[in-house]
Amino acid sequence: RGMVGGRVTTTANEGIQTDSTTLTSLVSVDPPRGTRDFPPEDMRLRSWLFQHFREVSRLFAFEEIDFPVLESEELFVRKAGEEITQQLYNFEDKGGRRVALRPELTPSLARLVLQKGKSLSLPLKWFAIGQCWRYERMTRGRRREHYQWNMDIIGISGVEAEAELLSAIVTFFTRLGITASDVGIKISNRKVLQAVLARYSIPDESFAAVCVIVDKIEKLPRSEIENELAALQVPSDAIDGILQALTLKSLDDLEDLLGAESGAVAELKQLFALADGYGFSDWLNFDASVVRGLAYYTGTVFEAFDRERKLRAICGGGRYDQLLSTYGGADTPACGFGFGDAVIIELLKERNLMPELGHVVDDVVLALEDHLKAPAAMVAAHLRNAGRVVDLVLETKRLKWVFKHTERLHAKRLVLLGATEWNRGTLRVKDLITREESDVTLDDLLT
Ligand SMILES: Nc1ccc(Br)nc1
Is the beta carbon of 416 within 6 A of some atom in ligand 1? Predict the structure, then answer.
């Protein structure tokens, strides 16, 4: 029991007592380092954002799923050197089990697909919004939790699935007033890197780890990238080949490098053709430097960026056709994206697109005398049953306080129960927009 200002003591058979003479210093009122509270104003913005996540998912006929924020650690143990696994928020629980706060949602989705197995009819179109965690040394002062919206399509091997996901992302941006001149989506395919590595006979086993290193190419000096690749026995001529491939900026150049038979070229061409059909081509750029930092991507990869290049990636995703077999299951084609709740807000602020979200109250109801509290409750219930948002004043208050209160709430009406009016079956109503006052019956209140 978090007693504040008193020490809680228990003695045998005497229950809990407090010794109020022992002053306890105030508990920390801030949330744990790297985490956020959501007081009403912040929660209204978060709910607004999540409402758009949900509405877009609904429009695309995706079904919502959810799973525990706590998972078995083994779900996230991967050997590819990803930052996400190096910053796992993991611990041993009181049962001696190795568990972790999930750093992403995709492994949980894969677990659920494997759990449901044959009972599922493919394709699955599932979405989730969930809090994800990382334990990062606070030296960088970054957050340790964020909320992610994920949409995933399981069971479709063609890039039609990626096109659908990209369309959902564009639909979301458009709803918020963001256009293709604000945001672009870089598209590439890990089969490009796979083809290049094959030319240097780099073993498939190194593929994921190479991708994780190459993803850092714009964040680390080239020498660091070369050292990390060399540690994977990637010879320096291969490194040159990789880095050269990553600078390609057109599908024609890609075709020149990989040949007309390249699977990557075919998939990318088909994806751009589908984007034309949806009408969001102007959002897309082929950019071979996009690799993404998750080990399990196998094909298409993409990320949305702000064209002013002030912010980190807004969202990202890709195809992960071999994730299920890493958990011992049968592989099923899959692709999806993750969309965090932080960068998008920074973008909206940058573009002056932040919504104005007030606490909306229709009616404030007040009993002017104690014996009218039950009738006031009846009036409030009546108005609420009709769908009006009612703030029922729960204590006897002076009118001066009530007027201030209605201003704070930006209420539309003040409904007063006074003895004289109530005895003749009326209520005193003040329209807080027009300032008009009138005596009305209960039924009049709802006309
Ligand atoms: N994966 C992950 C988790 C939490 C935050 Br904040 N960022 C990334």
Answer: no
- How far is the C-alpha of 102 from the C-alpha of 91, rounded, in Å? 12
Cβ–Cβ under 8 Å, residues 354 and 348: yes
CA dist 352 and 331 (Å) reads 44
pTM given for the model: 0.92
Q: Are 85 and 78 in contact (CB under 8 A)?
A: yes
Pairwise CA distance, residues 239 & 275, whole Å: 32
C-alpha 340 – ligand 1 centre gap (Å): 8
Query: What is the Å distance from ligand 1's center to 137 Cα?
Result: 13
Model confidence pLDDT, tens digit, residues 408-442: 999 999 999 999 999 999 999 999 999 999 999 99
Give φ, ψ of 165 to 5 degrees: -65, -40
Contacts of 421 (CB under 8 A, 6+ apart): 427, 428, 439
Q: Is the pLDDT of residue 73 over 80?
A: yes
Kindly indicate whether the ipTM for this predicted assembly is greater than 0.90, answering yes or no: yes
H or E stretch covering 143: none
**Beta carbon of 345 within 6 Å of any ligand 1 atom:** no
